Amino acid sequence: xxxxxxxxxxxxxxxxALSQISFQLAQGELAFLTGHSGAGKSTLLKLIMLMxxxxxxxxxxxxxxxxxxxxxQLPFFRRNIGLVFxxxxxxFDRSVFENVALPxxxxxxxxxxxxxxxxxxLDKVGLLQKENQNPIRLSGGEQQxxxxxxxxxxxxxxxxxxxxxxxLDPQLSAEIMRLFEExxxxxxxxxxxxxxxxxxxxxxxxxxxxxxxxxxRGATETSAGDL
Amino acid sequence: xASGKHRDNIKQQSKAAAKKSGNSIASRIxxxxxxxxxxxVDSLDRLLASISGTLMIWIMIAIAMALPLFLLLFLQxxxxxxxxxxxxxxxxxxxxxTTEMPRxxxxxxxxxxxxxxxxxxxxxxxxxxxxxxxxxxxxxILSGLDENPLPPVLLVTPxxxxxxxxxxxxxxxxxxxxxxEVQFDLDxxxxxxxxxxxxxxxxxxxxxxxxxxxxxxxxNTIKLAIENRRDEIVVVKLVGGTDAYVSRxxxxxxxxxxxxxxxxxxxxxxxxxxxxxxxxxxxxxxYEGEFALVGLGISGFFMVLLLSAMLGxxxxxxxxxxxxxxxxxx
Lengths: 227, 330
Fold this sequence. Notes:
The complex is a heterodimer of chains A (227) and B (330).
Chain A: E1 2-10, E2 16-25, E3 30-34, H1 41-49, E4 56-61, E5 64-65, H2 74-78, E6 81-84, H3 96-106, H4 111-124, H5 140-152, E7 158-162, H6 170-185, E8 189-193, H7 197-201, E9 206-211, E10 214-217
Parallel strand pairs in A: 3-8, 3-9, 6-7, 7-8
Antiparallel strand pairs in A: 1-2, 1-4, 4-5, 9-10
Helix pairs in contact in A: 3-4, 3-5, 4-5, 5-6
Chain B: H1 2-20, H2 25-49, H3 51-85, E1 91-95, H4 101-112, E2 117-123, H5 125-136, H6 139-143, E3 153-158, H7 163-174, E4 179-183, H8 187-228, H9 230-238, H10 243-286, H11 297-324
Antiparallel strand pairs in B: 1-3, 1-4, 2-3
Helix pairs in contact in B: 2-10, 3-8, 3-10, 8-10, 8-11, 10-11
């Protein structure tokens, strides 16, 4: 699903955020990405979303070489990836329903079809009864679940999460992780960046560790599966 | 090769996405149409929700639009007034007193064959004398003369009034050996037309500058709107919104700014017309003329509306081009 081939990222100013990263994430695999802050977790996710481009090396997502993806193709590429943020990035000028519907609206879905999918996604995260509320009135854990519903509403093949439990207490964090595992069980590939080591250690998934821009653990482990 | 394959990949993916949503091309088009419709309504709603700020911009645009339109209409009215006058603008061609009637008729037919001449009327020496006697009050003196001192005259009505046609026509009439003098005393009208022409061009230039001003005002307002909705733009881009999708609400906002301003400009002009109509017809009455003010008219109204809506859209487009692309997630 994801393949990094000797990828380095240097920001203007000479600071090297990632150096010579190589790893693969199999189709349907769930892996955690850890490391202290500044180790390059976010940069790595940004390279996959094409929010940044690699300085050298090649990134493949679903068989596509991202170096060859033009600006025009970018939106269509992003529609196949769900993204969950630490600060959930919800829009407070619209309801929960409208927040979750956004990716479908953007992709030009029929509104009835979209409504069905939005409700299904909200149902999965347990917030169906709050669809008409403004997300600003929800608790932190609920807001994060709305963010997850938005990330999966389009049924993406790949889901990326950047510190999805960073602002939540341990119990809510565990709930969110269980939610991710559920989606993973139905075949969604996932890469979850987190520094909550005790939480991810309790879950039995592959762990990729970054330190100062280098991958020090997990890169060579690959589980069986189509890449 | 690789990039071709990769393009196919993208195509397949978007096809797959289309299939996922059960979209045929027809329903995609209707969805896109619905999106346009929805965005148009939403952006108007947003403008109306902050009506005081919107009204300020509308009035600003209206003034900038109305000013050159006032000038243009004023000039158009003056021109119409002038053309009422120049219906009387005929060229008097005074012939030698010896010119006989058959030659006059021959000349008339010859002149009528020319494209720049609308009509030619012969006033024989006798007719001229009778008219003169009747109107001048010198009848008795004139009847005392044994010979008619008045020459026959050809009254030539030219088709066009502009100097480019008239000057050569006057010269060529002067060239006939039988012609004594050619008189065309509407030089002042020519001058008026010259001034009007100049004023019209000046107005176009002012209009152009003000139109640019409108576009920039809208552009700047859109820039602020883009800044205010930065978070939304970032999220929409991250979930796969195309540039066209992201810019659409702003372009419609620009369109509404322009259209609203244009509408108010039309109302201002209509009001001015109503206020001026009375005094103008009283003034025309003093000159024993009938004169109706030329207004915008229905087609003019729609032209102004269309033009200002397009200006607003254009201003928004400029702003979107500059500012929207700079907002990228990351």
